[in-house]
Amino acid sequence: SLRNTGRAAKSASTGVATLTxxxxxxxxxxxxxxxxxxxxxxxxxxxxxxxxLEVLTGSLTKTNEIIRELQEFGAVTPFTSSELxxxxxxxxxxxxxxxxxxxxxxxxxxxxGATGAxxxxxxxxxxxxxxxxxxxxxxxxxxxxRGVDITTELKRITGLQGDAFEKAQRQGKIGADLVNQALIxxxxxxxAFFGG
Length: 196
Description:
The chain is an all-alpha fold. 78% of the residues lie in helices and 0% in strands.
């Protein structure tokens, strides 16, 4: 009985090995098709983003330069080129100048990398500050929820503390230019988010 079971197991093993060999080319073909589909999808996505960014910047040359810089940056960060391009488009739509897009995207990526927060949320908050021209409590809270304490640096820059800072913020005296300077200070060497 044991010999018969052994023979049956050996026979079944041979059948499975034969079946595996038969399916190997099929599995390889499916893998190649999946890879081709992924490449096609990513290429189409990049083309869509390129066109959209070109419309926002008004220049194909500048768009290609921005995308090249973001792809190089994306290669050495945990962010994909697609994510970085998407945030760059968002910043441009919020009113950032074309020549500051790449630098701002990199700085926001440093902040997101250092805090572990989502890049989209941080970029949106900074974009809203730029669009409004000032820091309001709503955007300040959005940043604080993501672990980004920009107010401490703003207090250092302005020299205002406590109620005086809050009053200046309510009156719209903490402008987007000060917030941008705080971002630069925090992401430059020695800043809390440097190399994030």
